[in-house]
Every structure is written in structure tokens, then in C-alpha cells.
Amino acid sequence: MKNYNIRNLEDLLARKNELKVQYTLKQDDLKRDTKAYFKQFTLGALIKKYATPSNFFKADEKLNISSTAMSLILPMLMNKTIFRSSGFVTKALVGLASGKLGKSLDAEHLSAIFNSVKGWFSKKKEKNEKKFVDYGIPPDSETY
């Protein structure tokens, strides 16, 4: 620890103010570092870190996680939405059929389904651009 030459009241007050500033700066640094530390364990950060498509496909090849999850989730989803007011026998048959269907779905099938659904919504933009190209007007032209 440093020895400080405090000879009068002004030196003491200056040293006191200096220590208050250092204390405040260290307190702010500690709060900021603590927030940054805890942000890495939020749900969003964990999903970004571990639920990437490449990690999911690697794990899915070994454990077949997606088909297991779909065989559990799909029957519940079907019975709670579409077949809500149906009887016990119908719900049991839907549960068995959708469970079998869910087991056949793996990560590649799910990503293909997602891409095709996404493609339905992006087709509208492509049709508009194609319409201008058919008339001989480039889509990035300033004439329209």
C-alpha cells in the first residue's frame, strides 16, 4: 500500500474525493461485468450458443432428438387444436398416427418443411420482380 503525504486538511479532503471517485468507478465496473456475466446465461444467449443448426444436426444424427420430440409434441398438438372436441377413440388413433409420423421426421425433414413454408411467403416478391422483367424493364430500374 502506498504511503500518502497528507499534511493538512486540504490534502485529506483531496485524497477522500479521489477515493470516492475510485470507489464509484470500481462499483460501476463491477455492475457492468456482473450484468455481462449473467447475460451469457439467459435463455436467448444459450439458444444462440448451443441451438445452432450445425450443432442440432450433429446431435440429431447420434440421438435422433428431433424425431423423439416430434413424436411427443405432435400428438399433443393435434389433440389440443384440431381434434379438440373429438372422442377418446379418435384422440387415441390420432395420437398413434401422429406419433408414428413424428418418429419419421428428423432434422433434415423439419428444415425442408421450414424452408418450403418460408418459400411460400417469399414467392410474392419474386413474382413482382418477374413481372417487370417480362415487360423488358429491369426490376432495379428507376422507370417504375
List keywords for this structure.
144 residues, mainly alpha
Notes on the protein architecture:
The longest helix has 31 residues, at 9-39. The protein has 144 residues and is mostly helical. The protein is elongated and about 90 Å long. The protein has six helices and no strands.
What are the SSEs and their pairings?
Elements: H1 9-39, H2 43-50, H3 53-63, H4 65-81, H5 88-104, H6 107-134
**Major sheet characteristics:** none
Helix share bin: over 70%
Continuous helix count? 6
What structural category do the secondary elements indicate? mainly alpha
Span from first to last CA?
75 Å
Name the beta content range.
Answer: under 5%
Order of helices and strands: HHHHHH
> How would you describe the shape?
elongated
Unreliable stretches covering 5 or more consecutive residues: none
**If you compute it from the alpha carbons, what radius of gyration comes out, rounded to the nearest whole angstrom?**
31 Å
Number of E strands: 0
Mean of pLDDT: 79
